Amino acid sequence: MSIRAGARCSSRSRPWLFFALALGWSWLLWMPAVLSGESQLAFPGILLYAIGGLGPPLAAIFLLYRVHPPEDRRDFWRRVVDAWRIGPTWYAVILLLPLTLNALGILTGLLLGVPLPSFDRTAELLASPSSIVPFALVVLLFGPLPEELGWRGYALDGLQERQSALTASLLLGAVWALWHWPQFFMEGSYIGEAFPIGSVVFWAGWVLPTVAYSIVYTWIYNHTERSILSAILLHFMVNFWGELLTVRGEIVIYRSIWIVVLVIFIVLMWGPGTLTRQLRQAMT
Question: Taking the model in full, what pTM does it have?
């Protein structure tokens, strides 16, 4: 089933095999780092972390070149670099939505008596503007760029061929959250320190928004002719503003509430079938 008129999805997609390969590669490299007790920020932990993070793109590229015909591979790389698929409205959504959600979380916290975030990272970058570009590159390379080649670039189409966009998004979001699991046990891990595993902040401030945000990714992806670039940019903006504003503790829970409100609005307005108001059509 296609997700958008004029878009093509390959029936050769193997999302569950992709998940097995992506998690297998990442966990195989991350588990030694966890068991060693070495810091994620020191060698060899940082090397295992970086190479392990390549599980999603390596799995996607392996399957593309092992299972798919040349036209699928050409379509994949076009969707990575074609900036024209997105359009001004969706660029605005991608660029402003994560900032807005963070701002709403902070504002809600203030209204409920929660102190403002420390904004330590913001102060550091403002004190040294030349460090903004390296900071942005690190944010891009450690997450958005490699991950989205796999999650939205490969897996999402295959899932949407078999179920509604909403169900596909929830499944992908759950696997996406599960993929990160070993990182919470790594010494010096950012998400492990910011979202202590098993805590309220972990479940309500990280797991819930990770799964819910997956629906937002699909909503944008399906409206931008399956643009992988749109997913990369959205992932980047989510991580960039989250780290820049140093959002922590109760505020991430309030942000999660706003993300859920947004997701409910999207599903009600655009429908769970394709999240685009377009009927699912037989694959051509």
Answer: 0.94
